[in-house]
Write a structure and sequence with these properties.
Length: 303
């Protein structure tokens, strides 16, 4: 098993450290600069992985070095690559990884929501080999959304519409903002301080995370959606005030947001006038091939 050790990867390693399973061995751990590999393909000592990576790890510049090791490992035992990164680079290798006899499990959305060409190459490699691509965790934090859609399609059912609140961060923000009189900037600041947003909240407020998830869901049910998503492909409403798009950091963005609270107050007031609340929603109308990402108003009992 190979694991990319970003924050998500570190949490996974911690979980695996607490599991005793003789049929599961972690033989390589990597971050963006260094990797730690077992010389004899025996399990790494997971409780000590950070020190071992620091002291015994090797620097690398291209992913081929890691892939070569995994290919040799796959000659001995089945290998699962777990890509817990947000990298664009590693998903480009997914077709080759699958063709080399290695399974993939990933929460990284960049591959399955990237260019349609790459997505098709990944799916073709998975279908023409006995190896599998597990990407359930790219949407819904691992809830069985993708597998349910796959089962529906495989059983001959037809999906007419997909609609939902696909961002936990934006769900929190609009639950807090829409339920009272708090200012939008105050809610965003609080969400950032609690660790609910990315270090730069613009990475949540630009809507791209939701757009990637809709791209993945649409492709899962057979729609040919070009990617990576952008407003030139389908409407994506950004919640970033134009004046703050060029802020040099997340902190600078949060500091400047109060000046734009009036804009969000007006949106909330308009929804309240109709007895509704604001939510940041993604939707797909399959027959018309209409995809939208943005703010919508809903009656509270309909949510």
């Amino acid at each position: 098993m190979w694991i990319g050790c970003g924050l998500v990867g570190q949490a996974l390693i911690a979980q695996l450290s607490d599991i005793s399973h003789s049929n599961l061995s972690v033989v390589l751990i990597a971050n963006s600069k260094r990797f730690l590999a077992s010389k004899d393909y025996e399990p790494l000592d997971l409780p000590l992985w950070k020190r071992l990576l620091r002291d015994q790890g090797k620097d690398y510049s291209v992913f081929d070095e890691i892939l070569t090791y995994l290919v040799h490992a796959a000659e001995r035992d089945p290998v699962l690559l777990i890509d817990c990164t947000a990298s664009d680079t590693i998903p480009a290798f997914y077709p080759r990884i699958l063709e080399e006899g290695i399974d993939i499990a990933t929460p990284n959305k960049k591959g399955v929501s990237g260019t349609l060409k790459l997505y098709n190459e990944i799916q073709e490699a998975a279908q023409t080999t006995s190896n599998r691509l597990f990407y359930e965790a790219t949407v819904g934090a691992g809830l069985p959304i993708i597998s349910t859609l796959q089962d529906l399609i495989e059983s001959g059912d037809r999906v007419d519409k997909i609609e939902g609140i696909f961002s936990g961060t934006l769900s929190y923000i609009f639950n807090e903002f829409g339920s009272g009189n708090a200012k939008f900037s105050e809610v965003v600041k609080e969400a950032k301080e609690k660790g609910y947003t990315e270090p730069d909240p613009r990475d949540d407020l630009n809507g791209m995370d939701v757009a990637r998830k809709l791209t993945i869901l649409g492709r899962t049910i057979g729609m040919e959606i070009e990617g990576p998503p952008s407003s030139s492909i389908f409407p994506i409403e950004s919640l970033i005030p134009t004046a703050l798009e060029s802020a040099t950091s997340g902190d600078e963005f949060v500091a400047g947001l109060p000046a734009h609270d009036g804009e969000f107050d007006e949106k909330r007031a308009a929804a309240k006038k109709e007895g509704k609340v604001l939510r940041y929603v993604g939707s797909i109308e399959v027959e018309s091939k209409t995809i939208k990402v943005g703010l919508q108003s809903y009656l509270p009992e309909k949510i």
